[in-house]
Structure formats: C-alpha cells, structure tokens
Design goal:
about 350 residues; alpha+beta; Alpha-Beta Plaits; 7-stranded mixed beta sheet; about 45% helix; globular; binds magnesium ion
Amino acid sequence: MSLLEQTNEIITILKSKKPDIIENIVPDLYWLAPYVVKQEWEKLGDKVKERETLGSSSHSIDGSKWISLRLDGSKFSSVVKMLRNKGIIEPKGFSYKFAKCMQDICLKLIEHFNASLGFTQSDEVIIFIPPSINKNGDLQEHYRNGRVIKIASLAAGIASSKFMGSLTEFCIKSNNIELIFEINNILPHFDCRLGYYDSWEEAKSLLLWRAYDCSVNGISDAVHQSNDGKKILKENTFNKIRWLYKNSYNKINMSLLPRHQAYGTLYRKTKRVIIQLNRNPKREDTDSALVAKERKFIEKEDLPILDLEIKGWLDNAERESDHENKLIGLIENFPKYDNLMKSLKTKFNL
Ligand SMILES: [Mg+2]
C-alpha cells in the first residue's frame, strides 16, 4: 500500500465514525478522535519515516515537490529536567514557558521558509513548504536550490538559536540574568529530518501521524506530570483519560489538560481582507478614501488537527475561503466613513 492509500484509509475511518466520548468527558473538556487501531497509525508512521529517510539522503529537492521539515529536540528528556531543576522553566507540571519556546520556533521557521503550515507538540516542530511557484505560475527552484543539507542544517540552526533566545528572554524578564550561564551550559539543540512529497494530500500524512502521536503522548505526559499519576502510566489511553478526569482536571478552565498539551499548536497561512485608509485618496469621503486589501497572515487554528481533517478543512494546506473564520476579516474602524465601510463589507462579504 502506498503512503497516500494508507493515509486515505485512516481518513475514511476517521470520517465514518463519531468522536469517542468517555462517560462525562464531553468534547469541550477533551476532544477524543474517532478510534483508529494503533497498528494503522504505526503503518502510516513507518511509511512517513521511509519518505524522510529518502528525503534526508537526497542531494536536492525539485521545486515541484512539497517539503516537510521535522525538528526534534536532542536528548530533551534530560534537557527539560535540567531546565526545571535550574528554575529556568516551571519546576513541575505542564510548562507554559517550554510550550512558548516551541511555538516561537514554529512561527520563526514558517516565516523563514515561507511555509504554508506548521505544527508543534512536545519537543517537536514540523513545517510544510509548498512547491515553489512564482506569481506568474512558473515553477522555480526551492529556497537554496532545494539543497537538503543546506535547508535541514539551517532549520536546525534557526530552531536551536530561537530556543536559546526565548529562554534568555524569560531570564531577563524575571530578573534572573545569571541563569543565562546555565542555559549556555545546557546548550539545547535540535536535529532536522527532511521529507518530500508529490502533493499536499501526501505531505499531510506526516501532520496526521504527529497529531495522533500528540493525542497519545499529551495524555501520558499529563498523567506523568501529576503527583500520583505514575501508578497508572501502564494503563491504556482511555483509562488515563478517566483518571485525569477524576483526579486532576482543571475545573476553572473546564479542560482536561492544557490545550497545547492535548492537541499541540497548529499555525496556518490564511487570507484575510483588511480595510484601511487609502494613503492617497483622490477625494475625501468617497469611494477612494478606504481600500480593501487581501493579505496573508499566519494564524493559530482553534480545533484539533484530526477534527479539522474530518471537517474537510485540511483539504488545502492554507486556510481556504470556505472556512467559516475567513469571513471575520481584520477590520480597522473608521467611524467617519461609516457608509463606505458598510459598502466594502458587503462587497467582501464580511
Ligand atoms: Mg526529542
């Protein structure tokens, strides 16, 4: 079975079932994906890893291909332990500081490589670089001529450097400048695997597989980080979820565990219409006083990845116009031009 066939088999199962609900744990508390047997996910993971082996041993990638970069913190179980012990991040429980560092890396990599989409969970970041096509629709070479060693080493370098930078910022903001020496000794760093694909449908396999991994590991981590959760670490995911609900769920935020820990964080390029003052209006208070422009922004998605897939919102890497949130737009307010605003909103369906 090919990578695409394996992915489509899983998607068919996901779309044909309802999300699992355990007892009182409603989707707002924790969205549990429809059940797909572990072996199917493992088969998918093996096929994606084959692509990464192929990609990482290539010299360069053709501009018509999708490229995935998957960065992983090197020996991070001991790195995180040291960061906790030294008081650089939270001493126990879910670390919001660590999550913020990973999100910073993801956004930086999306920006640097002009990626369509990025995802981070645990100590891992993945980004997806679309085929290189210019404004006239002509195929071009990828960044740095698509050279694998160049791209992967730059990505690992940027990730490592950004991680150090974000940690350093925490130390400066909390007036613990001496901790910067400790970070320098720990020297956290990342490796990078590169895969390539003929289409977004194929490339998406990596994203779905890591989203599944996050759903299993996020729960395990939450249990592991609880004071007396260690005793049920060997239980299956359903039992761990039951245990979390009974023992440690956050009744204030009404969620079983922090959102990033549960689903990771997904960033996507999104087209938005913004209305702004025309810098050179021909006449005041006329059609030319305000202009509407379409711009691309990188935005956080609110739903778990597998839920987005079920809803068909991952059919394209970048967020499409049929996505309900597109219509919100980013609108500056110009009371003086009320009528003009109204007509532009109608025109752009905002
Ligand atoms: Mg790691």
